[in-house]
């Protein structure tokens, strides 16, 4: 029997939301470049999207398991949170994903029965907490992925522990919350606390579910973090202190910069000729903008429900500011107000209603600012290319990210509706003194981010160490037999694609 060492193999199970899936696809590509075999497990309609983002490679596979079909009140065919008609259905969606445990374990069982054996580790999303139990049953380490900043995760964990007993802060601002043992670079207000934590009610099934997820989280082998040490070094140890068994937080981001093909390289911005080949209407429009850093990019991510009345306010604010803008709108019910539409005819703005390549847009030399909801991916993508943020947070941990950007990092300006305030904020960010300072800070952070993922950089080295450590945990010589695995995976319960 051959005693060839088995090729290291990592199984990745992303949560079905764009902001959670995309960074794990970037991580998959980073692992591929280190000759690690990667299998991504997901449901059929997500698989279609995922395959589009992956390179052709004989060492990356996507396994489909069926999404639970009914009984959860979800719209037919909904397999991704971006397809939810309202975030009120988020808990129903989470509940449905629990049914994926059996097919997930079937996959692990087949892998462990094959000659290639079980993977080095499973990297699964925080929301798929039940994967821990499965991993433990198969003796495979689970690494958890949250898609959040270190600071937001540490604050959330600390709040869960301390919020019921917290006394008002002794600092200058009496309404801010003091969290024991944490140095928070801004005044933490109760309104910044993510909703489920603020209203923690242990009789509520959604809260109970979150508690289960949190318990699985802290019992995991480690945490993969889409951030970099230079950005969040001072919060890492307090975050790790919430984990059992000495689990480490592995900061390997910004993951999208690990994609060599798209990396902005040493220059701050991509030139339009690099982008022209993509030829989307958004990119064509941007290429027509002659003034450097003159356009505001506007997007509120894939999750937040923004009311049409609020979209009106934003539209009028953009028009009044006189700043050119490119705006991605998700609402299917909102119509552009007539006045604003008239103004856009002179080429001052573009509203896009389909999916855009946000990273490409942010990397365009015409973009000078980002009006953002401050989802963590958006924050990283913006500062990595030196674009300052006009922060308008909405849900989840976004208020924490916004304060980190504005106060902690100095790379943005905070804003909220009504329109007058947004209008002033847009002008200040794009042409004002505070905006100039925020741009300089974002550019400095962008340089650090790009250094972090290069050979010798902090994130690059951390990923190497993570792989070394995982290989050490399960360094068993086994016959290499990839074909056999592929054959066995063709079961009636799931199907496997090679990209
Ligand atoms: N995104 C994109 N095109 C779009 C909308 C979103 O590429 O039209 C990407 C964006 O670049 C980011 C992710 O989707 O990587 C959204 O994640 P984020 O954490 O910013 O916000 P969320 O959608 O999770 O609230």
Automatic annotation (TrEMBL):
PANTHER family linked: GLYCOSYLTRANSFERASE (PTHR48047:SF185)
Lipid metabolism keyword on record: no
InterPro entries assigned to the protein according to its UniProt record, in alphabetical order: UDP_glucos_trans, UDP_glycos_trans_CS
CDD domains xref list: GT1_Gtf-like
Source taxonomy: Eukaryota, Viridiplantae, Streptophyta, Embryophyta, Tracheophyta
Gene3D superfamilies per UniProt: Glycogen Phosphorylase B
Listed SUPFAM superfamilies: UDP-Glycosyltransferase/glycogen phosphorylase (SSF53756)
Keywords assigned by UniProt, alphabetized: Glycosyltransferase, Transferase
Protein name: Glycosyltransferase
EC identifiers of the protein: 2.4.1.-
MF term (GO), any: UDP-glucosyltransferase activity
Keyword set includes Ribonucleoprotein: no
Name of a matching Pfam family: UDPGT
Family statement: Belongs to the UDP-glycosyltransferase family.
